[in-house]
Design goal:
Chain A: Keywords: FAD, Flavoprotein, Oxidoreductase. The complex is a heterodimer of chains A (284) and B (157). Chain A contains ten helices and 14 strands. With 284 residues, chain A is of the alpha+beta class. Chain A has a five-stranded antiparallel beta sheet with strand order 4-5-10-6-7. A four-stranded antiparallel beta sheet of chain A has the order 11-12-13-14, with helices on both faces. Chain B is an alpha+beta fold and 157 residues long. Chain B folds into two domains: 77 residues, Beta-grasp domain (Ubiquitin-like (UB roll)); 67 residues, Orthogonal Bundle (DNA polymerase, domain 1). Chain B is built from five helices and five strands. Chain B has a five-stranded mixed beta sheet with strand order 2-1-5-3-4, sandwiched between helices. The chains are: A alpha+beta (284), B alpha+beta (157). The interface between A and B is medium-sized, with 32 and 30 residues.
């Protein structure tokens, strides 16, 4: 189908975009970034925004930078920006692994990191990254700038704590220490489909034992989050099979899996167990 | 409420000044307003890849972009591949390797492959398989498309 009519706005600055959103959000005005989810839902007429505020022409939002230990991802930085050597270190290496799992190349050339974060699909890889690394969403509104950590951003399936007049201008991720080991794996029935579950792990070794473990699960629950039960198992233990099996079991037990017509809760729980163990093995 | 505007699209080097609604997708504008019907419309929601064109050299789904967003950008479609009487090496390769039956998906596959091979002609088999999984073909079973793209890549070097 064809999208329903809307009025199109193409602001040239963040201030202009924020002021337009403030004015138009109450009339169902929406931000258009990469459009790879929004335009598809408009084609289905599941979304019929009366106004679209296209932020693609705002130059400062296209910036991707890394300094002072923080990767800052502007609202219009596309997925494909991470499939390059632009970002160094452990965080860059992790993002390069993850990005190849996102849909397909022609989607990655348009879709944006921040668009995925704001859309809050449970199966979004970037939402899982934000949860795993305790990323921060930088929100701008006429009231000023608010910084919301990932743990306080996600509330449910495609539901966030962003107000309707807040523009996500950037996402920030910490630069992981260079010796951080990272592993990511997801499962979907066909290449490029939405994942039924995914696991992202990072940790460092101090001597022979695991320190600073992070385990995040996406796709299985209504929103991605760190699983502290699994991290507790890993902390201070040697990275061996017995440790990984125990941590994977802890993750499988801790989650509250979604169910749908193809996937029972039990299936997702089993999948999370397998994926967590595999992610830990990939990181080792 | 209708938001119409005059825009200029640059397709294969030719400029088309057209008047479209904001809701007009890029693929509809390319076909209907600009008359370039080589680009096909399959699913209209970004899944099948039949409408793949190059925007500033990158393969995109032209059903997931609005025409107004493409103003000032360089658009390439399947009509731009042939040079005079000479088919593009990838078009030759698709013929030679029987990489199409009904041909509906072919323009999308060609633009997808051209966009990627122009930047990186040395894809591994795994990368190629991953890339081609983004477009749907219901006739060939993909094997001949793989063969054609692999052979065409050599022809493009």
């Amino acid at each position: 189908m064809k999208p329903a009519s809307f009025a199109y706005h193409a602001p040239k600055s963040v201030d202009e975009a924020v002021s337009l959103l403030d004015e138009l959000a109450p009339q169902d005005g929406r931000i258009l970034a990469g459009g790879q989810s929004l335009v598809a839902t408009m084609a289905f007429r599941m979304a019929r925004p009366s106004h679209l505020i296209d932020i693609n022409g705002i130059e400062e939002l296209a910036k991707l930078s890394a300094d002072h230990g923080v990767v800052r991802i502007g609202a219009c930085v596309r997925h494909c920006a991470f499939d390059s050597d632009a970002l160094t270190g452990a965080t860059g290496a992790l993002l390069r692994k993850v990005v190849r799992n996102i849909a397909h190349l022609p989607i990655r050339t348009r879709g944006t990191f921040c668009g995925s974060v704001a859309n809050a699909d449970p199966a979004s890889e970037w939402c899982c990254v934000m949860a795993a690394l305790d990323g921060v969403a930088v929100l701008r509104s006429p009231r000023g700038t608010r910084r919301v950590p990932a743990a306080e951003l996600y509330q449910g399936v495609m539901a966030t704590s962003m107000a309707e007049d807040e523009l996500l201008i950037a996402a920030e991720l910490p630069m992981l220490a260079d010796d951080t080991r990272t592993g990511f794996i997801e499962f979907s029935r066909r290449q490029g489909d939405f994942a039924i579950a995914m696991a992202l792990v990072t940790y460092r070794l101090e001597g022979t034992v695991i320190v600073e473990p992070r385990v995040a699960i996406g796709g299985a629950e209504t929103y991605p989050r760190r699983i502290s039960e699994s991290e507790t198992v890993l902390q201070g233990r040697a990275p061996c099979e017995a440790t990984f099996v125990a941590a994977a079991e802890a993750a499988a037990v801790a989650i509250d899996p979604m169910e749908d017509i193809n996937n029972t809760a039990r299936y997702r729980r089993n999948l999370v167990r397998d994926l967590t163990q595999k992610a830990l093995e990939l990181a080792a | 409420m209708t938001d119409r505007r005059e825009i200029t699209l640059k397709i294969n080097g030719t400029e088309y000044t057209i008047n479209v609604e904001a809701r007009r997708t890029l693929v509809d504008a390319i076909r209907e307003e600009c008359g370039q019907t080589g680009t096909h419309i399959g699913c209209e929601h970004g899944v099948c890849g039949a409408c793949t064109v190059l925007v500033n050299g990158n393969p995109v789904r032209s059903c997931l972009m609005f025409a107004v967003q493409a103003e000032g950008q360089s658009i390439r479609t399947v009509e731009g591949l042939q040079q005079g009487e000479q088919l593009h090496p990838l078009q030759e390769s698709f013929m030679k390797h029987h990489a199409l039956q009904c041909g509906f998906c072919t323009p999308g596959f060609l633009m997808l492959a051209v966009g990627v091979l122009e930047k990186n002609p040395d894809l591994t088999d795994e990368e190629l398989s991953d890339l081609l999984s983004s477009n749907l073909c219901r006739c060939t079973g993909y094997e001949n498309i793989m063969k054609a793209v692999r052979a065409g890549a050599d022809g493009m070097k």
